[in-house]
Amino acid sequence: MTAHSDFGWRPLNRRTLLGSAGACALAVLATSCGLVTGGRGSDQARELAQALTDRDVSGITFAGTSGADAQDQFDRIVANIPGATWDVEVSSLGEISDDGVRPATLSWTWDVPGLDQPWSYDTTVEIRSDDDQNWAPAWSPTVIEPSLAENEGLRLSSTPAERGNILGAGDQVIVSERPVHQVGLDLSQVSPADRESAAKRLAQLVDVDPDSYAATVSSAAGDAFVPAISLRQDAYRDLDSAAAAGIPGYRADQTTMALAPSRTFAASTLGRVDEVTAEDIQNSDGDLIAGDQIGRGGLQEHFNSWLGGTKGVVVSVCELHEDGAPVTGTSRAMTDSDPVAGQDLHITLDKRLQEAAESTLADVESPSAIVAIRPSDGHILALADGAGSQMYPTAAQGQYPPGSTFKVVTSLAMVRLGDTMESTVNCSQDITVDATQFGNAPGYSSAFIGEIPIKDALAHSCNTAFISQYDRVTHTDLLEAAESLGLGQTYELGINAFSGSMPQEASSVAHAASLFGQGRTLVSPLALAAMTASAVAGQMVVPQLVTDREAFNGASESPSETASPTPSAPPLTSDEAEQLRRGMREVVTTGYLQDLKALSPDTAMGKTGTAEFGTDDPPKTHAWIIAAHQDLAISVFVEDGEGGAVTGGPLALKFLEAAQGS
């Protein structure tokens, strides 16, 4: 027998055997380079390896099958391992057998989402020669993974990590695993023809989006359980069980889910945890697969990585249904990674105060909010949206004119011009600015018309007294006073929040309107609570919601809505704040918030506010209260109210009494 290497190879018939010298040369070359190049099937092996890497074997000439058929099988095998990439190389070529078959070793290296290291292994493909010395690879599922049998494929599944809890003030558990019923469809009990209609019927029954749920069902494995919603115990009891039982494949599994104490508890702030949808998976670049859970909205979404930890993943071989979906119970694991539990998130909400705020607003039909901040450290203790808000985050994101509560800002601007709360201002019946007439609220007491102290103008909310300062207090003065009290500051809370805005320039009339909180000045209930806290603390208070500052590293983007930058304002001084507190105290002792004198000790302070909106005649009004008692500053807001004192006053008293345990 004659020995030959791949270099300078001349055609031999397929019965030619390699001699010992040639075999040794081949072994040396394969060991030193990892691949023998040139001829005798090596080119075809390299072409196949590249085609496998590129996910397109349709152009390969195979022995015994077409490229199109091989491509169909290839796609079917890897369809259930989304987001994975791989690289295939020819690591060695074996000897040619008597019947012209040369084995090639393919080295696979996978990058699988969720695996902490590459998944690597070798497969073998036969490169076959015909009588005319034409070489072609023989297709088999084992080219992709050596244990694959016919009608099997690869599957990526996840092992959920234990999600961190959300802990409130004093490490009170706010969000933790609580019992639920997971309602969905068992697709093994639904014919393919009935799946879309069953999905939409169930979605309508449990009030989720029918099209989205139907899409999730459509993309799920043929015998999978596809959850539609997780219902708390009380909600599950209210479900129309007869209607549910009539839906093909309906199933309800008892499990647990990360939940707050109640459905409404700080709902817009906390967010929720849900099963991923088909759209989530499609937009995740392979990071999500069916069965994963993610945070949606609020803190759960912003800190999803912190709370959710790292899921474990399993790559397995399993049998496939005709439609390519994995057959449940047939998986055998090839490689996996262990889940890493999420971390607890510590926030400032006080469970008792949050519940008290929500209870206070329970019967308010209009959108409403109560925010409570501790001035000494800026901790947000309650961030409550009323039932009428219908889950909209009124407390943090509502944008409304502040009405007469803004007279606190105007008072600061006046103090900076040398006034005190004892300085007098003229409270007239009406005042005209550039042909626009302004007046006081209907029913304003005639006893406080004329020259009165600023504290009385605050206590009885004389509009004209503050409007009269329009040519003395400049718009820049007003902007700076607002900024010194925290309006327009940048929040870093982990939720979207609006801190207030004012126009950077204003006409005389618009400026006059701004002086008593009308015009284009906008605030949120959170912004006014922070303003009140600043007056109490004697310095600008920056609201805090999340105390785990390291949790912000790598958190998803959640920019706060803030005002346009204003000139750098001078910081609020203790003397300035003392003047504001004197004026706000007068509102309780002689003004519109005398109900708060019922609190013990009798030290409360505050300000009422009413802001007109809409086109009705007379116009509708927003009702505002800002108040402080001991180390607690609050804002109360009702979108459609009868005035600050009338609508907001009783709500403020009820909440503050609850706060002190009355």
TrEMBL record:
One of its GO terms (molecular function) is peptidoglycan L,D-transpeptidase activity. Residues 552-576 are annotated as: Disordered. This is Penicillin-binding protein. One of its GO terms (biological process) is cell wall organization. Residues 555-566 have a biased composition (Low complexity). Residues 66-151 form the NTF2-like N-terminal transpeptidase domain. PANTHER family: PENICILLIN-BINDING PROTEIN 4B (PTHR30627:SF24), PEPTIDOGLYCAN D,D-TRANSPEPTIDASE (PTHR30627). Pfam families: MecA_N, PBP_dimer, Transpeptidase. Residues 159-315 form the Penicillin-binding protein dimerisation domain.
